[in-house]
Structure formats: C-alpha cells, structure tokens
Amino acid sequence: MATEQNNISDAIGVIAQSADTVFILLGAIMVLAMHAGFAFLEVGTVRHKNQVNALVKILTDFAFSAIAYFVIGYQIAYGSHFFVSAETLGADNGYQLVKFFFLLTFAAAIPAIVSGGIAERGSFRPFLFASAMIVAFVYPLFEGIIWNGNYGFQTWLENQFGAQFHDFAGSVVVHAMGGWLALVAIYLLGARRGRKPGIAFAPSNIPFLALGSWVLIVGWFGFNVMSAQTLDGISGLVAVNSLMAMVGGTVVALVVGKNDPGFIHNGPLAGLVAVCAGSDLMHPVGAFVVGGVAGGLFVWVYTKLQRSNKIDDVLGVWPLHGLCGVWGGIAAGIFGQQALGGLGGVSIRSQLVGSVAGVVVALVGGLIVYGIVNKVASLRLSQEDEFIGADLAVHKIGSTNSDK
C-alpha cells in the first residue's frame, strides 16, 4: 500500500514538473514573439531607407544576446552555467533550461529597446558588439541583485525599510534599464542629420507601427503573467492588472496626444511597462491609474524631446521604457499598499531606492560599454551612409522593390 502511494506521489510530482516546464516555455515563446513587435514598431517609425536595418538589428541582436547570456550573463545573475552533461541539463524535464530561455527573452529586450532610440544613425556592427557586452555584464549584474538577491542589496533594503525592492515582471530590471541605457547611446550619437528641433520625421508606415504595437501588447501577457515561472503561482490578478494598465495608457494617450496614431499605439505600451513591477499586487483600478499616468508621461516627454537639439530619441524609448519603467517601480510601492486596495508587503522607500539603483547601474554601465566601443569603432554611421540610409549602406538592399 505504501509503495502504491509513493508511486502515485511520484507520478503527481512528474506531472507537476512537466506542467511547470510547459507553462514557462509558453511564456518564453510569447516574449520571443514580442521581438517581432519591437521590429515592426521600429520599421513603421523610421524612414523607408532604414526599414531593412530595423528588422535585421532586432534579429541579430537577439542572436548575439543569446550567446552572451548563455556563456556569461546567466552565470553572473544566477550563479549557474550550462557546461555540464546533457543528462544533467535534462533533469526535471529540462525546467532550468526553459527558465533560461524565458529569462533570455527578457535580457534580449534590452538591445531591442536601445535599437529604437539609436535608429537611423547607429553603426550596425559596433552596436551589435555593444549589445552583447550589455547582456553579458551590465544587465545580469542588476538582474541578479534584484531577482536573485546577489550582493545583499535586497537584504539591506528589507532591514532598512521593512521590505525588499519589488519588481515582479521588470518595470525597472528590464524596461528602465533598457531605457536609460538607450539614453546614454542616444546622447553619445547626437541627432540625426537634417532633423530640425520641433519638426519631426513622419513615421514611414502607420500600419506596421500599429502591428508592432499589437504584437507587443499580446506578448506582454506572457511577459507579465508567466513571470510567476511556475503553474501554481499563476494569477488572474496579474492578467487583469496588465489589461487595465494597457487600457489606461491607451485612453490617456488618445486624449493628451490629440488623436495622434503614434501616441495612441505607444500609450498602451507605456501602461504595460509601468504595471510590470506591481502587477501582482495592485487593485485593477490602481493599475488603470498607473497605466494612465504612464500614457500621459510618455506623450508629454516625447513631445518635449522633439524640440531638443541633442536628444534625438527616434521611437521615444527613454520616456516609454526609461521614465515609465521608473514610474512603475515607484508606483508598485504606492498602489501596492493595502490602503489603496493592494496586497501590501511593499515599501515606498525601498521602491524609490531600488528604482534609482537601476538607473545608476544603467547609466554607469552604458557609459563604460558604449564609451569603450565608440573609442574602438565609431558608434555612428558615416555622413554618406546616413544620407543614403542604413539599408543600402549596410545591407545593400532596400525594403521594397518596384521592378516589374
């Protein structure tokens, strides 16, 4: 009888482990699909002469990020590596391998975010190398500090303020890091030639821009919900909070952006960026407010940037990911409080300190990596290559062909 019960227990354990593996695998696939969203959002925003380059950058950045994270980054963040036998790696239905795949898709979002900011004048190969360095060293340093408790930072926050820094799905760890890293690169590059403050280059293809936005929106439910990483941790609260933040961002961007389609399709993304950190804590009404503030913040700051001589952020990745990501980290400490309908267990002071720490790591890491790469090989296209466009200059082909 005891043997039979043990067999049943073992079978249940295998099924549970298999279910967790499938669950996180589906999340990895959904976030992988988001990279198509990054690609088409950029394709629809840049001018025709840079559309091929936008597509190529996202795919090649992902490939180089995968190598960098597999060989170096994952070990820095979590202290484990994959240079063991396949038999060892395949234990527990290969759950640890699939977890790596899922977290890789987050890490690779960093270069995808940067890509939108440096579009149309960033040099292809130097930025490809810089992206690998960011994913190998800079991003996993902060990822490990927050999500794996490295270096005692989270313990210190808990001792000082009563709670650790809470970032359930990466408002700061992923999005703010990507946005502030992008700001460094954008500043070093300077503005596109021919760009006049207050006169923006019009998006080349609104349908592609909208397609990119929709792919990101759908994939984001894998980004947020599957951040639980196990089936027993799944929460409908995360899903509905993500939904309400997306809606809030859309509505406010519609109103504040005065029906502009670019703002309308970036508004939901701003809301989703902001809700990542506290999506497992907030009340849906709080999530709606958080998303709405993010949508308004994006429109306001991006509009201001159009008048800047130095900060030429093509897709607005610094306000979208950098600022809205920081807002999301802070908002988790506000709307996660029980007094505002949240589940509690968060400290506004910890959220402030943790968010600032993410910005500091991104700025310092970005200055080091982009500064060194720029010394070795210029981060900027030559004047001639920028004039003819990266498609012909780098890839020797345009995005469309009208030959008959």
TrEMBL record:
Ribosomal protein in keyword set: no
Family: Belongs to the ammonia transporter channel (TC 1.A.11.2) family.
InterPro entries listed in its UniProt record: Ammonium/urea_transptr, Ammonium_transpt_CS, NH4_transpt_AmtB-like_dom
Domain named Ammonium transporter AmtB-like: residues: 22-396
Native source organism of the sequence: Shewanella ulleungensis
Keywords, alphabetical: Ammonia transport, Membrane, Transmembrane, Transmembrane helix, Transport
Spans through the membrane: 22-43, 55-77, 97-115, 127-148, 168-189, 201-222, 234-256, 287-305, 317-340, 352-373
Species lineage: Bacteria, Pseudomonadati, Pseudomonadota, Gammaproteobacteria, Alteromonadales
Keyword Transport: yes
Membrane topology qualifier: Multi-pass membrane protein
PANTHER family membership: AMMONIUM TRANSPORTER (PTHR11730), AMMONIUM TRANSPORTER SLL0108-RELATED (PTHR11730:SF89)
Record Pfam families: Ammonium_transp
Protein name: Transporter
